[in-house]
Amino acid sequence: MSFFLQRWLGGSGPWGRQEVSQAVERLIDEVDPKVRLLPRSQQQLQRGVRDTLRYASELIEHLPAPLDLSPAGYTTDRRVGLLFASPESLCRVLQGSEALQQYFSHPSNPDTAYLLLVMQPQARQRLGSQLLPDGQVQNDVPQQVISFEQHRVVAAYDSLKNLRQLAGMEAFNALCRDLARRVALFDARRQQLEAERQRVLLRLAAGGQMLINAAALRGRDDVKDAELPQRLQQLDAELAVMGKQLSLPGKLDYLRQVLRQPQQYIKAGLESTWLDRMGVVTPPDLGGAQLDFGLMKLGEAEDSVRERVVFPGSITRRDLQQWRERWPQ
């Protein structure tokens, strides 16, 4: 997800030829490896990838201080208790992290790992009780509760400086995954249209005859029999456009379009909210404590934007061992 921010990182990002080439290969691998079959496909993407990496690294100026992900930190760092439903859930995330496992598998690495933690924010409405300033309790108060789910450790490094320097690449990786998801959804839509086209052809072939399976031929289509020829023309036209867009040249053009205007597809910034200890949005004068977090948005349309909350964090070998002793896998 997650990922970015070179000003917080303290630099413009070391995007040399090798780093850019690796990022190009990552992008192609995620979206469609067959794009490599096109002449000069990698070269056509290099400039856009370099510009996108620089943009991703400069999205926001800073992130909150790293979370203390030790067993003690769960109780002393109030933010950790808000981000995880229980100590056991934090333990599962840490023990299941491939990035942390790889980091601590090298004895030469420092004992402290600095990581990027990504999660999905969820907001829901409910009726609850509220303690008023005069000490009275008011019931059935509309409340917004914010929770955090789908936690992932996306990277682990040996210093906060290196974490900051490479955060832009993590943002780019998140963009690659999102583009691959969008292409897959577009292809799924094409398959749906092709299935509908087959149903339309079968209904036209029936020629108005009474068939036992006429309802099955209709499927979920609401098209009347008299409208079938027009619908077939619409499907043929839409599938022709989608066929071009999902061809290898079409996918390459799509990637070039995104890389020309990365600001249309990826955004990030520092956000703040005020929560009580149960995650209820609460004004400061009623006891809400400020929670600052990095928020990354992926997507070009408001109705399809995906949001991810990002925090830096730290944990030591000893901390991880203590978690294992409390909740063995």
Describe the structure.
The chain has 329 residues and is an alpha+beta fold. It is 48% helix and 22% strand. Mean pLDDT is 85; it is low at 1-12. Strands 1, 2, 3, 4, 5 and 6 form a 6-stranded mixed β-sheet that branches. 29% of the residues are buried.
Task: Note the main attributes of this structure.
329 residues, alpha+beta, 6-stranded mixed beta sheet, 12 helices, 6 strands, 22% strand, globular
Instruction: Provide the structure class.
Output: alpha+beta
Distance between the termini: 26 Å
The number of helical segments is 12
The number of E-state strands comes to 6
Average per-residue pLDDT, rounded, comes to: 85
Summarize the structure.
The protein has 329 residues and is an alpha+beta fold. Helices cover 48% and strands 22% of the residues.
Secondary structure blueprint with pairings:
Elements (H helix, E strand, L loop, with lengths): L5 H4 L7 H15 L9 H17 L9 E2 L2 H6 L1 H6 L3 H9 L2 H7 L7 E20 L5 E21 L2 H47 L7 H5 L9 H18 L2 H13 L5 E10 L13 E10 L7 E11 H10 L3
Parallel strand pairs: 1-6
Antiparallel strand pairs: 2-3, 2-6, 4-5, 5-6
Helix pairs in contact: 2-3, 2-8, 3-8, 3-11, 8-10
